[in-house]
Amino acid sequence: CAPHPGGGGFRNSISVDQFIAAKIGHLTRFQSLTLGVNASVGRRSLSWTDAGVLIPCENRASSVYRRLFLQGSEEEIERQVRKLQLGESIMDTLEQESKALTRRLSAADRDRLDQYTTAVREAERRLVMARAWERKPKPTPPMGMPSDPSNRNAFMQMTRLMYQMARLAFQTDSTRCVTLLMDGNNSPAIKVAGTKITDGYHNLSHHGMNKDKLTQLDAIDREQMKLLGELIRDLKSVEEAEGNLLKNTVVMYGSNFGDANKHTTTNMPVLVAGGRLKHGQHLAFDRTNNYPLPNLFVSIMQSMNLPVDKFATSTGTMQGLLPA
After folding, report:
1. Would you kindly state where each structural domain of the chain is located, as residue ranges?
2. Which residue stretches of 13-73 are H helix?
3. Which pLDDT score is estimated for 194?
4. Which residue from 16, 11, 51 is spatially nearest to 34, judged by alpha carbons?
């Protein structure tokens, strides 16, 4: 959503989850969780720092579970605290050295160094926050350790597990920001009950109106909607002081294409559930002069009582989404 993508001198910027996490992440053990299903680690993610640096996805539900619930021994905790303190010291040194270097650089190199030092400061801030939480006990796990599928074609099983981890993270207030990238571009033929899938999701999405590919794509998408429905019902089943977990959570589900067959990035379908938004409706807009997607992000943030009027290329809010 950064301005002028593809233009000369383009500089990537922060993703909406990290923008929100910067405002409310201090309230929880983890500022945010960046999850993936078959995500190409280090290459694809939904989360980007203020300096436009990719935050790698965690693809294993068991690793997410360990971070959320497994507490080390006292010695392990103290060892981790020392590591975090060392990390802070290293970050301090790097920042001091970069300041000294700035005076000898050209304008272009100073800009690149500024991106680097911004990333260093962000890393240091995360280290300080992590150290503050390290000695605090983690919540009791509501379920046992998940077993990670060994085959990447178990896409739906992995998706269900990651949805469960996201729900548990919210339920225990371990974080208030989660992204989940379901990487069809990096997935083989996906297992779907009742339908033989013969190709990867990416190739199927470029279907060229082929009937067999469309049938397979339909089966995959229906299964994904079924899993999303499970997540929404699970969130609704968790009672909280002010209603239920779904009422206190905004779920946004979408795609990076409006039409994957044509690689169009306009008129993208987006489903929004939960939170304190106006639901039970289909909002359709001018297909030739549509809202920029960040308008939706601004509406969501305002529904969370965050004082935000502008994000990325937004031009306002998305009409019809906020209650009167």
Report:
1. 1-70+147-324, 72-137
2. 16-24, 61-69
3. 94
4. 16
Type of residue found at 106: S
Percent of the chain at pLDDT > 70 equals 88
| pLDDT for res 87 | 63
pLDDT of residue 44: 94
What CA–CA distance (Å, rounded) separates 80 from 61?
A: 22
Model confidence band, residue 51 (pLDDT cutoffs 50, 70, 90): confident
Say if CB 317 and CB 291 are below 8 A apart.
no
DSSP three-state, residue 24:
helix
Q: In which band, very low, low, confident or very high, does the pLDDT at 284 lie, cut at 50, 70 and 90?
A: very high
Token pair recorded at residue 290: 């549509």
Torsion region of 124: left, alpha or beta (phi above 0 gives left; psi -120 to 50 gives alpha): alpha
**And the tokens for 175?**
């974080």
User: Counting every residue, how long is the chain?
Assistant: 324
Report in angstroms the alpha-carbon separations of 153 from 188, 250, 260: 6, 29, 21
Q: What is the dihedral of CA 134, 135, 141, 147, to 10 degrees?
A: 40
Alpha-carbon radius of gyration of the chain:
21
H runs (alpha helix) in the chain: 16-24, 61-69, 74-102, 107-134, 155-171, 201-205, 211-237, 294-303
Rounded-to-integer distance, Cα 38 and Cα 152, Å: 7
Name the band, by pLDDT with cuts 50, 70 and 90, for residue 74: confident
- Its CATH class, for the domain covering 1-70+147-324, is alpha beta
